[in-house]
Amino acid sequence: MTDNDNWHLSIACRRTGGVRVITACGEIDLDSAPQLLDALTADGAAAPVTVVDLSGVTFMDSSGINALIAAHHAAQHHGGQLRLAAPSPTVSEIFGIVGLTEVVPCHPTLRDALDACPRQSGGPDVADARRNRGGHQNGTS
């Protein structure tokens, strides 16, 4: 194990147009999936709409799929919605194989996902948190 293994996933949270956007960068696997689930369910499970920007995700295994499904169920339980945006071709293929896109709406771009969301009245667009393993941002030191 190298030092890089301790921070291979970076997560940033912000709100735009009343929609909560979670941006993930790096690998989502058994070690990092709990971090993603925490970001998706902590204080935001009751958000009307959460979009997960996956454009920076380079790898996702079944642990990541399970985290997304759990977050989807948590959002529904609180009357909210979860949407996925901009998965890479590899991640998109995995979603298709397991049928995730039949359960959770998935859009080719973040803009498409945001455009498909009902507009919420909310405060200004702000970054509300950054969660990075090992204290590094976007997998860099």
Shape: globular
Portion of residues within helices: 25-40%
Estimated radius of gyration: 14 Å
Strand order of the largest sheet: 5-4-3-2-1-6
Overall pLDDT:
83
Largest sheet: 6 strands, mixed
First-last Cα distance: 17 Å
Query: If helices are DSSP runs of H or I spanning 4 or more residues, what is the number of helices?
Result: 4
Question: Total number of β-strand segments?
Answer: 6
Give, in order, the helices and strands: EEHEHEHEHE
The parts where pLDDT drops under 50 for at least 5 residues are 1-6, 122-141
- State which percent range the strand residues make up: 25-35%
Secondary structure category:
alpha/beta
Task: Tell me about this structure.
This protein has 141 residues and is α/β, with parallel strands linked by helices. Helix content is 29%, strand content 31%. The chain has 4 helices and 6 strands. It has helices at residues 33-41, 62-77, 89-98, 110-115; strands at 9-16, 19-28, 49-60, 81-85, 106-107, 126-132. The chain has a 6-stranded mixed beta sheet with strand order 5-4-3-2-1-6, sandwiched between helices. Helix 1 (33-41) packs parallel to helix 2. Residues 1-6 and 122-141 have low confidence and may be disordered.
Summarize the topology.
Blueprint: E1 9-16, E2 19-28, H1 33-41, E3 49-60, H2 62-77, E4 81-85, H3 89-98, E5 106-107, H4 110-115, E6 126-132
Parallel strand pairs: 2-3, 3-4, 4-5
Antiparallel strand pairs: 1-2, 1-6
Helix pairs in contact: 1-2
Keywords:
4 helices; alpha/beta; 141 residues; 31% strand; disordered N terminus; 29% helix; 6 strands; 6-stranded mixed sheet
